[in-house]
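Quick one: sequence plus copper (II) ion SMILES, need C-alpha cells.
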Amino acid sequence: MSGGLGPDPVLPSPGDHLRHAERLALLERVWSNRRGLVGQLTAVNHSTIAMRFIVTGFAFLLIGGMLSMFIRLQLAWPGLQVLDPERYAQFVTMHGTTMMFLFAVPIMEGFAMYLIPKMLGSRDLPFPRLSAFGWWCYLFGGLFLYSSFLFGSVPDGGWFMYTPLTDATYSPGKGADFWLIGVTFAEIAAVTAAVELIVAILITRAPGMDLTRMPVFAWAVLVTAFMIAFGFPPLILASLLLEIQRAFDFAFFEVARGGDPLLWQHLFWLFGHPEVYIIFLPAAGVVSMVVPTFARRPIVGYTWIVLALVATGFLSFGLWVHHMFAVGIPLLALAFFSAASMMVAIPTGIQVFAWIATLWSGKPWLRVPMLHIVGFFVVFVCGGLTGVMLAFVPFDWQAHDTHFVVAHLHYVLIGGLMFPMFAGLYYWLPLASGRMPSESLSRSGFWLVFIGMNLTFLPMHLTGLVGLPRRVDSYAMELGVHWLNLVSTAAGFVLAVGVIAILIDVALCFVLGRRAEANPWQAGTLEWALPRPVPAYNVASVPEVGDRYPLWHRPAIADEVTRTDGLLGEAHDGRREILGTGIQSARPEQVIRVSTSTWWPLLAALSIGVLLTGFITSQYWLSVLMLGPLLGVFLVWAWTTGDRHAPASIEVAPGLTLPTQAAARNAPGWWALVATLLIDGSLFASLVFAYFYLWLNAPAWPAGGAQLAAWAPTLAAFAALMVPLLSAWAAPRALRAGRRGTAIAWQGVALVAGAAFLALHLPAIWQSTGAPQVHAYASVVWTLAGFHAVHIVVAMLIGGFVALRIHRGHVDAVRSLESRVAAGFWRYAVGQGVVAWGVLHLFPRWL
Ligand SMILES: [Cu+2]
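Reply:
Sure thing.
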C-alpha cells in the first residue's frame, strides 16, 4: 500500500505464504458461480452477467442485421417480390426495434457492467441480483417480442410506433401489443442497469480515485445512466398509455374522444432523441480510453471532455422536437429547436478535438482497435455533418421521410456506436479472454465493415435527395435510383460479411488466440492491473489510487491487487464484500456485503413473463393471479438482501474498521432509492406532461361531461395523505432512540393513513369523473390517480416490511438503513400525491 490505510510492508514469513494461498482459495470459493446448469441459472456476478448481455446483444445484432438484408434485397431493383408490403413493414419495424432496444442499449450496458467494477478497482457491482434480474428481463422481453413471429402477428407500425397507426382501430390484432409489452419488458434492464451503475460509480471507487481521477469511460457511463433515468420513463409511460388504450379502450390518443395522437410523438421523442446520445456517450467513453493508450500519453483536455459529456446529457433533452419539424409546430418553437439541435454539435466537437489533440501530441500506434477509431472518426463526422444539415428546418422539410434521413441515422449510429464498440471489443479482448486477436482476420473484418458500410449508405444520400421515400417497399424505374440501390444492396452484404467475420474472429480468439502478455497495449488504467484470467473477485485486495493512469505511474499496483494483505484481503466469514468509498473524496467508508448466487432474479423475471403472457392472451385472471407470486418473490428478495445478520462493523485491514452498509450513511440502498425515485419522478412528470398536453387541446377542462370532485372528500383525502409525513419523521427518530415498539407503531399509523387516503380519494374521483373510457379527460385523470395510488400501496408494503424487520431485530438503532429507506419512500409518495392532488383538484379550478 502506498498510503496509510493498509498494513506496513513487512517481509513475508514462511507462514504468510500459506495464509496467502488459503485466503486466495477462500476468495475464489466465495465469489465463484455454482457449478453446472444450476450455477448458470443462479449466477449474479457482474462479469458473468455482463458477458451474457454482450453475447445476447450480438445475437440480436445478427438477427436484426438479417432482417435488414431482406429489406435491402427487396429494394435492390424496382418491382422485386422478395417481401410483400406487409412483411416489408414488419421487417422494417423489427429491424429498427431490434437494433435500438435489443442491441445498441444492452450491448453498452454489457460493456459498462463488465468494465466499471474493474476500472474502479471494485469486486462487483453493488446490486448483483438486480443485474441478473435485468438480464433475464432483457432476454425474456426480446423472446416475447420475437414470439410474435410464431403467432403471425408481427408488429408493423415502425420502431417509433406512431399513433393513430398503432391504435386498436388501425392496428387490430396483437402485433402492436407484442411491441409495447415486449419492449417495455426488455427496458427493465436499462432502468435497473442505470440504478446499478450510478450507485457503483458514486460509491464503490477504489480509495483515492476521487471524481477528477475517474476514467473518462466511467464519467460517460455515469452521464448515460442519468440520461436513461430521465429519458426512458417517457417511453415507458407512452407504451403503458398506448397499451392501456388498446387493452381497456381508454382514449389518450384518440381524437374522437378528446385525445391527441401527437402526444405519442412528444413522449416518444422525449425519449428518442436522448436515446441517440444514450447510445453515443458510452461509445465516446470507449474512444477516450482507447485513444490515450495508443497515443501513449494521457488524454488531452480531461476536464473539457467531462464537461462536454455532461453538457451533451443536458442539451440532448431539449432536442426532441427536431424529429417533428414536419408535423406543424409554431415557427418560434421551430427556430428554438433548430438552434438547439445545432448547439449539441459543440460538445461533440470538443471531444473530437480533444481526441485529435491527444493523437497529435502523442506517438500513435496503429493496431486494430485504433483502426476502428479511425473508422469512427470518418463515419461519425460525416453523420454529424448531415445532422447539422437536417437541423435546418427548410432542409428538413425537404429531406423528411426520405432515404437521406436513413443515410444520416445509419452514419451516426454505425459511426457513433458500431466502430467505437468494435474498437472497445478488440481493445479489452486480451483482458476478457487472456489472448490476442488475430491481426490478419481482424484487419480484414474492419475493411469489410468500413467499405461495405460506406457503399451501402453513401448512395442513400443521393437517392433520398432525388426523393426516394423511406418505409416504402418499392419505387418506380423512372425515379432513376435503381443502380444506386443495387450498389447499396450489394454493399450491404459486404457489411454483413464483415460483421460476421469480426464476431467469428472474437469467438476464435477465446480458444485459439495466442496468450496475451500482461497489459499488452501498455494501458494506464486500473482494469489492466488485474491478472488474466481475471478472477471472479477481480481484486484480492482493493488497491489505492493516486492519479488517472495508476498503472503508468506505479506499475507495482498490478502486484498489489493480487496480494491478500491489503484492504478487504481477508474474506472473513465467507461473505462477498465490496469496499464502499466517499462520493467525492473516495475515502473508505463502509463494507458492502452483496448477494451470492441465487434463484430470485430468475424467478422474479419469470413471474413477470407469465403475468405479461396472461395479459397479451387476454387471460387477465392469470395476470391477476400472478401478482401474488410476484409480490412474494420480491418480498423474499428484499428479506434476504445484503446480510440479515451483518455485524455493525468489520475490520477491513489491521487498524481500519468500517461500518457495514446497513449502518453506513452513504449506504448503496439509500442511493439506489434516490436513483429509483429520479426514474419514478421522471415517469410521473411525463404523466403530468400528458395531462397538461391533453388539456391544451381540449375546449373545456374537465371535459367529456365529467366534473371536479367535491371539496369535502377531496380535502379529507388530502389530510389523510399528510399523516405519513409525520410517521416518516418520527419512526426513524424513535428507532435511533432505541424505542423499537414506537417505531413499529409509527409504521402502522402510516399504513392506516394510506388506506384511509385511498378509501376517500378513489370513490371521490369515481363519482365526479365517471368511467375512464368516456373521454381522454377521464382516461388521464384515472391514470394519474391510479399511478399515485400504486405508490401509496407500495409505500404501505415497504412500511409493513420494515416494521416486521424491526420486530425481528434485523433493523435497529445502528443498522437503520431500511427504516431510512421506508421514510424516504413515504416522503416521496406523499410529495407525488401533493402534486397529483394539485393537478387533479386545484389547477382546473384556478385556470
Ligand atoms: Cu434527434
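The radius of gyration is 28 Å. The beta strands are 435-436, 514-515, 576-581, 588-594, 649-653, 656-659.
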